[in-house]
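Sample pair:
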Amino acid sequence: MSSTSAEKAPVIIIDLQTNMFDGRIEPPLHEADLLTDRARKVIDWARRDGRAIAFVRHDGPKGDPLAPGEPGWPVWPALGQRDDEPTFAKSVRDAFSNPELGKWIESQGAPEVVILGAQTDFCIAGTVEGAMAAGLKVTVVSDAHSTLDQPQEKAAAIIRRYNAQFARAGANLVTSEALTGSLWPHRV
């Protein structure tokens, strides 16, 4: 990864929506408070560094907690999204299914993206795959994506397993601390 492209890489925040945190309908994501803190740290770093930030919001079907207009649908307010930070809608796992996201990334002039958000085993995995298929280099913030426990596997194990899969697929993995500190853009 070259430092020139790393300096331009926009931050893409996937599906960090109210329903993932508030516990009203479904349990909160694994370590939801830590995820919020780490995402906020990355957002603040990106703003200080002059990087573009985009949010992706899942539009579920009618009756779903993530359906447009439902209380759980908005981007999680604790992230402090600004008016000039766009939101791209999607209804499948891969955020690159929305061609407007690809156009926005292209307009940033960066051959790579930084990805964080939810859910590790669904929309993060799908978006990492979609970004790579689009020819982008991908950095995954390894401690700033999360999921829910599954009957056969706890969330922490799912996150570890997917981080290993992302690395095998060629993604750069970096912790939120390393990304926002002096270690970026080195592999961590």
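Confidence is low (pLDDT under 50) at residues 1-5.
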